[in-house]
Write a structure and sequence with these properties.
Length: about 250
């Protein structure tokens, strides 16, 4: 978690690049075919933050990440990265810009080795692949020990760590992570959240979707509650955890 507790000021209104949000959605509408999912959705991510996006099934949480990552084009509104409009850019270009994405499912290639998975994560790199992979093996010893093992032989938690490392091969400064704890036992989920914090400490701002709202907010600086494609609540993670309405409606009391 970053030490910057400032959450309410909207820095982009100053137009000062030094205080610009690293990522911002401004009044975004988006969806699939002619089915609208996101409705006037606005949120931002500042450098060094972990921001947690929570909300019920079908609220549009994954759709937010897909819209940022260029898998869906915004119908209305803007998505900006360091102040530049990236709405409508292709995912392969967005990756080169510096945004990584760890999808909710199928985020590693089970039939490939750990090492091959990491190398696939770096196909768009022009140089420095060996150095960055060696650095990732140092940071994640559990991957180092299993370089030649097939990814399908990893446990659920280990697979998530591989998925994070794969995205980090491009050295993003923003990582989008969709439900890192899905399907994991509580202890394993806690370990995965510790890895999310470790990734954040590598100067990577993180926008994370999490069903496990209490644990997700527990490692986050700020949060957004999304319901029916619209942000219903936002604020410091602690203030959301303490909010009675949020607690009753979205945190299971
Ligand atoms: N590929 C798709 N085609 C059509 N509709 C879709 C598609 N993916 C998602 N939707 C719909 O968009 C809405 C939002 O889905 P989304 O996956 O963003 O929700 P979510 O908040 O991530 O939910 P969950 O917690 O279940 O992962 C849902 O009504 C869903 O049925
Ligand atoms: Mg989802």
């Amino acid at each position: 978690m970053s030490t910057n507790e400032s959450t309410t000021d909207d820095a982009t209104t100053t137009g000062d690049p030094a205080t610009e949000h690293v990522l911002e959605l401004d009044s975004v509408d988006s969806g699939y075919g002619d089915v609208q999912v996101l409705d006037d959705c606005s949120m931002y991510l500042d450098p060094g933050e972990i921001v947690c996006l929570i909300g019920p099934n079908g609220a549009g949480k994954s759709t937010v990440l897909k819209t940022v990552f260029g898998m869906l084009d915004p119908w209305e509104g803007t998505v900006t990265y360091h102040g530049d409009n990236i709405g409508g850019m292709a995912p392969e270009d967005i990756v080169r810009e510096g945004i990584g994405y760890v999808p909710q499912t199928d985020n590693v290639f089970g039939s490939l080795s750990i090492d091959e998975n990491l190398r696939m994560g770096g196909v768009a790199r022009r140089s420095g692949l060996e150095d960055v992979i060696n650095d990732l093996y140092e940071r994640f010893p559990l991957l180092d020990e299993k370089r030649t093992a097939k990814a399908r032989t990893l446990s659920g938690g280990q697979r998530q760590v591989l998925a994070f490392a794969r995205a980090l091969v491009m050295e993003p400064d923003v990582l989008l992570i969709d439900e890192p704890s899905a399907g994991l036992a509580p202890n394993t989920a806690q370990e995965v959240f510790e890895h999310v914090e470790a990734v954040n400490e590598m100067d990577t701002a993180i926008l994370m979707v999490e069903q496990n709202a209490k644990q997700g907010l527990g490692i986050s600086d700020r949060g957004y509650v999304l319901d029916q494609g619209t942000v219903r609540f936002d604020g410091d993670a602690d203030s959301l955890l303490d909010n009675d309405e949020v607690s009753q409606l979205y945190l299971g009391g």
